[in-house]
Amino acid sequence: MITSLFHYGFIIRGFEAGIVISAIAPMIGMFLVLRRYALMADTLSHVSFAGVAIGLLLGLNPLITAIAAAIFAAVSLERLRIKKLVYGDAALSLFLSGSLALATVLISVANGFNANLFTYLFGSILTVRTEDVTIIATLGIITATILVLLYKELVYVSFDEEAAQVSGLPTKALNIVFIALAAVTIALAIPIVGILLVSALMVIPVVTALQLKRSFKETLIIAEVVSIVSTMAGIVISFVFNLSPSGTIVLFMLAIFSLIVLFRQLQGSSKKQ
User: Fold this and answer.
1) Which of 7, 164, 180, 245 is the most buried (most CB within 10 A)?
2) Domain housing 79
3) What is the value of pTM for the model shown?
4) pLDDT of 230-258, one tens digit each?
């Protein structure tokens, strides 16, 4: 059964896209969690929903319009934060509710939900086309390269933004670049886990790795392993048992999280004894 997976083109495309996304998502998620921006992923995923609706309505590639919408919203949110025009949570709420409102209006213009839009909501490897894999791989490599090049600066800004600014780092530019990369990553993850679950792919592996209380680099590596293993296992399990890939991936991540939390508790109990 499992060997027959590789006889299907859409499964191979799903694996290819899944590996790229599951490798990048924890890298972005790590900084989002450290900055307490976890809700940013939810907001940008809902903005991407509006972008997908625009793409389907205009006959454009929904992945491209989702990326454009997410980047625009991310940069706008960061500018609002820098200028302190609106408090962070309030700004997130404005964009989240506004993007959902825009999406529902566009859907009504297009005469309601259709199968394509539904798959973008919940994710499906069936929706991943060769063109999408090319876009995901290209932007994924660019995103990963920028993150590696700016790794030290982003770590510094994430832990102490004021000290980083005093030391001469261009914190405003770094924040805008990072939030734009986060927007791209969130939009790219939509075909695999869907708009409603994309934040889980970025947050759960990081939160899981943090339970082990290792160094920053070790935590990031563990999050990468959890993310990639969960994505690959989720695709295989969903194929074998005819389940939703996105839901299976997230549930597998939660299972790993639960096991690690249980392990930590048992470890703590044994030390007390």
Assistant:
1) 245
2) 3-267
3) 0.86
4) 999 998 898 888 888 888 999 999 999 99
Q: What are phi and psi of 8, to 5 degrees?
A: -110, 125
The answer to whether the beta carbons of residues 146 and 180 sit under 8 Å apart is no
Tell me the Ramachandran region of residue 112: left when phi exceeds 0, alpha when psi lies from -120 to 50, beta otherwise.
Answer: left
Residue 273 lies in a domain: no
For 254-269, the DSSP string reads HHHHHHHHHHHHHHHH
CA triple 233-189-2, angle to 5 deg: 25
Count the domains in the chain: 1
User: Whole-angstrom Cα distance, residue 12 to residue 115?
Assistant: 22
Rounded CA gap, 167 and 67, in Å? 33
**140: which 2 tokens?**
């994924």
Rounded CA separation 262/252 (Å)? 15
86: CATH: 1.10.3470.10
Q: Tell me: the pLDDT tens digits for 132-155?
A: 889 889 999 999 999 999 999 999
Residue among 219, 187, 214 nearest 33 (CA): 219
Question: Degrees (nearest 5) of the Cα angle 78, 118, 234?
Answer: 85
State the first-to-last Cα distance of the chain, in angstroms, to the nearest integer.
Answer: 47
Q: Is residue 38 part of a domain?
A: yes
Question: Is 95 inside a domain boundary?
Answer: yes
Q: Is residue 103 part of a domain?
A: yes
When computed from its CA atoms, the radius of gyration of the chain, rounded to whole angstroms, is 19
Closest to 136 measured CA to CA, from 41, 21, 53, 232: 21
